Amino acid sequence: MPLKFEICPGRMIGGNHPCFIIAEIGQNHQGDIEIAKKMIKLSKESGADCAKFQKSELEFKFNKRALERPYTSKQSWGKTYGEHKRYLEFSHEQYRELQKYAKEVGIFFTASGMDEMAVEFLHELEVPFFKVGSGDTNNFPYLEKTAKKGRPMVVSSGMQSMETMRTVYQTVKKHNQNFCILQCTSAYPLEAEDVNLRVITEYQKEFPDIPIGYSGHESGISISLAAVALGAKVVERHVTLDKTWKGSDHEASLDFNELAELVRSIRTVERALGTGVKRMLPCEVPCHDKLGKSVVAKTAIPKDTKLTLDMMTVKVAEPKGAPPEDIFQLVGKKVIADVEEDESITTEIVDNYGKKAKC
After folding, report:
1. pTM more than 0.85
2. Strand runs labelled E in the chain
3. Higher pLDDT residue, 357 or 119?
4. Average pLDDT for residues 90-116, to the nearest whole number?
5. Integer Cα distance of 352 and 343 in angstroms
6. Are 155 and 133 in contact (CB under 8 A)?
7. Closest CA to 214 of 187, 182, 189, 185
8. Contact 43, 23 (CB under 8 A)
9. Among positive and negative, which fits the CA dihedral 106, 252, 152, 197?
10. 316: which strand partners?
């Protein structure tokens, strides 16, 4: 059984616990705190477990030239990349306001720390867990410092190799037992042929003592449901109020009707996964009573006759006779009463039923 741990107060993941569903608001709030609050509330109403943002301390995430480069994309909120990112970045005080609002609404709140200083702030904010975005997954000093803080971690794996992910696992595990890895492909939007869901099962083999999850950027919900069927214990999806809004993430996001359908469908899939124990279930008894077959006499069989295979056949019969799976065990056993042709061979009239016949 995969490792289980408490990702948020009172909320376990892994094992047979429900999939933890993260609504990734990211920066789809357009730099507007009221839009951000609306998205938090809709995330809760849609049934998600957590509303997540992305926090950067820009001078620590980007070097000076990266912030100064011209940014002329139709997605831009400024003339330079730095102006664009500053427009979308909430202040520390705004983050505290959003955290307080999420608590009032009743949904867990966290953010990806996009650089080491952002992680320091989130740690000060006492978020329940750290999310590591794919851009920092191979940033081993960052991983080590984050792991040492002792909060649970959710680590995405976009743009990485299995060899790198083995190092990620070893780096985090040394300092922090409570983490999971998400299969992720960093493309927005993501085409189905690039999703590579089979990596989930490979991660389960490589890292059998941690939960594995899925972070998706594809259209629709079907692929995320398939991830849950494969055993994903965390699902993260970007959300938006309008897929046509400015910003590269909107097109790769779910609207809140889709998020609600995803949550409902995940819970249905979880119920459908069952226990893995194959047996006749109580719901199958009526069908078995109506259509289940029994061993029937193919010909009249006198009392004390030893049964042979050519004396028996299998039919839907009244009353119920011996089950068909026992027909070979009946060979060589005596009947203790006459059996008419086409009558059920019941267990009561077979001597030593349930014991192997002597040859």
Report:
1. yes
2. 5-8, 11-13, 20-26, 50-55, 108-113, 130-132, 153-156, 179-184, 212-216, 234-238, 293-297, 312-316
3. 119
4. 98
5. 20
6. no
7. 182
8. yes
9. positive
10. 293
- First vs last C-alpha separation in the chain: 45
**Distance separating alpha carbons of residues 213 and 230, to the nearest angstrom:** 9
Note whether 49 and 6 are within 8 A (CB). no
Q: What is the mean pLDDT of residues 10-31?
A: 97
In this structure, are residues 316 and 288 in contact, taking their beta carbons and an 8 Å threshold? no
> Are the beta carbons of 297 and 341 closer than 8 angstroms?
yes
SS3 293: strand
**Would you call 80 helix, strand, or coil by DSSP?**
strand
Residue 199 and residue 305: Cα distance in Å, rounded? Answer: 60
Q: Render 99-157 in DSSP notation, one character per residue.
A: HHHHHHHT-EEEEEE-SHHHHHHHHHHT-SSEEE-GGGTT-HHHHHHHHHT---EEEE-
- Kindly state the percentage of the chain with pLDDT values over 70: 98
pLDDT at residue 358 is higher than 60: no
The 3 state secondary structure assigned to 23-58 is EEEECCCCCCHHHHHHHHHHHHHHCCCEEEEEECCH
By the 10 Å C-beta count (0-12 exposed, 13-18 middle, 19+ buried), 292 is classed as middle
Tokens at residue 14, please?
């892994």
How far apart (Å, rounded) are the C-alpha atoms in residues 164 and 3?
21
Q: Which residues pair with 112 in a beta bridge?
A: 54, 131
Token readout for 120 is 């320091």
Band of pLDDT at residue 355, cut at 50, 70 and 90: low
Distances (CA, A) of 254 to 23, 43, 154: 9, 11, 21
Instruction: List, for residues 277-326, the tens digit of each pLDDT value.
Output: 999 999 999 999 999 999 999 999 999 999 999 999 999 999 999 999 99
With b for 16 or more beta-carbon neighbours within 10 A and e for fewer, the 252-290 pattern comes to bbbbbebbbbbbeebeebeeeeeeeeeeeeeeeeeeeee
